[in-house]
Amino acid sequence: xxxxxxxxxxxxxxxxxxxxxxxxxxxxxxxxxxxxxxxxxxxxxxxxxxxxxxxxxxxxxxxxxxxxxxxxxxxxxxxxxxxxxxxxxxxxx
Length: 93
Description:
By secondary structure, this protein is α+β, with helices and mostly antiparallel strands. The chain has a single domain, classed as Roll (Ubiquitin-like (UB roll)). Helices cover about 15% and strands about 25% of the residues. It contains two helices and five strands, in the order E-E-H-H-E-E-E. It has helices at about 30-40, 40-45, and strands spanning about 1-5, 20-25, 55-60, 65, 80-85. Strands 2-1-5-3-4 form a five-stranded mixed sheet, with helices on one face. A hairpin with a 2-residue loop joins strand 3 and strand 4 (about 65). The longest helix is centred in the middle third of the chain and has 11 residues, at about 30-40. The N and C termini lie far apart (about 45 Å). About 20% of the residues are buried. The mean pLDDT is about 90.
């Protein structure tokens, strides 16, 4: 099953400057593992030392935030599109 993953700029140096990659995965957990297998170092940037997605990293499956789905266990199907989005901090004074 082929899943398209949009890679944010801070991670693109780990994915050989690819903006988008395709992975084989049945859920977000498998997606992260597949990315790590193909692009070593990605998981450490996405996940904390306990293997959980860092709180400043957001995943969207077909534009839906996985925090409102099943989180790390969110199921994926063929041709789904996943976006990895780092949170942006800041504001106005």
